[in-house]
């Protein structure tokens, strides 16, 4: 996540790196109604009723790295993929992100990918906390939202119970039954 030069993020709250000279910087963020409308459009939400976060920024000792930790809370309205009904949901997420200077391409030798956590580069002299929160929200949103009380009924199952309680794997059995009815 880098700061755009023209700062065109829907929800932008800059933290200047020179503010991190103190031991710990805390920020409470809350999106305005205009920002929530823009973010709802960006994330294909029916509505974003609220978005707030509490973040703490600390410099990592003996390095140029900055660790941002905290939590976010959002109130979203989504469309159920099963019934197409609108429903509200609360989204809570933990934020833990590492930022550092842009070092360009780094060659990693003999290190499994899982063991490497490269920091997000800061661009210039700031970190956009609002964009970080927006990206974290995007990561925790359910891509196939479903109301909690909805069970997909009437879906053709490829595994159908037979009279002897054996599971058979005949994917076209339902179609054969339908053809017999015609």
| Biggest sheet character | 5 strands, mixed
Helix fraction by DSSP (H/I, runs of at least 4): 10-25%
Strand content of the residues, in percent? 35-45%
Would you tell me the overall average pLDDT?
81
Poorly predicted ranges: 1-6, 154-162
Q: Report the total helices.
A: 3
Q: Note the gap between the termini.
A: 58 Å
**SSE topology string:** EEHEEEEEHEEH
Gyration radius over CA:
24 Å
The domain count comes to 1
What structural class do helix, strand and pairing data support? alpha+beta
Number of strands: 9
Overall body shape? elongated
Biggest sheet, spatial arrangement of strands: 2-3-4-5-6
Structure commentary:
With 182 residues, the protein is of the alpha+beta class. The protein has one domain (14-152). 17% of the residues lie in helices and 35% in strands. The protein has 3 helices and 9 strands. The protein has helices at 33-42, 129-140, 173-181; strands at 14-16, 25-30, 47-59, 66-79, 86-101, 120-122, 126-128, 159-161, 167-169. A 5-stranded mixed sheet has the order 2-3-4-5-6, covered by helices on one side. Strands 1-7 form a two-stranded antiparallel sheet. The protein has a two-stranded antiparallel ribbon with strand order 8-9. The longest helix has 12 residues, at 129-140. It starts with 13 loop residues before the first strand and ends with a helix. The model is unreliable at 1-6 and 154-162 (pLDDT under 50).
């Amino acid at each position: 996540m880098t700061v755009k030069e023209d700062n065109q993020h829907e929800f932008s709250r800059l933290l200047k790196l020179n503010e991190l000279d103190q031991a710990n910087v805390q920020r409470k963020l809350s999106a305005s109604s205009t920002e929530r409308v823009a973010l709802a459009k960006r994330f294909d939400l029916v509505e974003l009723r609220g978005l707030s976060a509490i973040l703490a920024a600390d410099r990592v000792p003996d390095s140029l790295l900055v660790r941002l930790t905290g939590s976010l809370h959002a109130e979203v309205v989504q469309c159920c993929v099963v019934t197409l009904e609108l429903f509200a949901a609360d989204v809570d997420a933990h934020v833990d992100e590492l930022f550092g200077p842009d070092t360009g391409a780094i060659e990693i030798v003999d290190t499994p990918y899982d063991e490497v956590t490269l920091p997000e580069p800061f661009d210039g002299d700031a970190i956009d906390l609002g964009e970080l929160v927006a990206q974290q929200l995007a990561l925790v949103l359910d891509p196939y939202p479903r109301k909690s009380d909805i069970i997909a009924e009437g879906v053709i199952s490829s595994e159908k119970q037979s009279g002897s309680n054996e599971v058979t794997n005949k994917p076209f059995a339902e179609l054969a039954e339908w053809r017999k009815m015609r």
